[in-house]
Give the backbone structure.
Amino acid sequence: MAAGRRIRFTAVLVAVVFALTGFSSSGHGHGSKSSGSGSGGGCSSSKKRSGYNSNSSSSGSTGGSGGSGKSTPSPTKSAGAPARASVVTCAGPGRPQAVLTVTSVVDTARLVDVPVVFQGANGVVDRTTVRVSLKARETRTVTADMSQKEKAADVGTCTVGTIS
């Protein structure tokens, strides 16, 4: 048990050291002048800033983030849903809609689709999808209307599906 903790501690310590020293795997470490996607990396500091000097002899850029020393995640990798949602009020007798709060978890404006399932004692009563326009990190309250309003009395729970 102690060996496992020691290994985890070492892994966390290595990650912290890399983060603090600006370890980068973008291929532009150590002030290289390559504009390709080579396989370099390593610790970078003031060397990365040298690409912004006016006397640079290369037409390529040496750093994508201005030499901040911190690596940034690739925008092509998906980290999950762009927003999260929760049910504030579910549909029920005399109320053929659900009220939701939807919160953006990304740093850009997005248009997201929030699927809502209206469930009753015998299974799914109705489904709908609400399209929500969100600014970066914004939270909005929206209404999800049932398409089969006459079945509102059969609804017991409302659930949110996978947001896209």
In short: The CA atoms of residues 36 and 104 lie 34 Å apart. Confidence is low (pLDDT under 50) at residues 24-77. Helices lie at 2-21, 46-49. The beta strands are 83-89, 97-104, 110-120, 123-134, 139-145, 157-160.
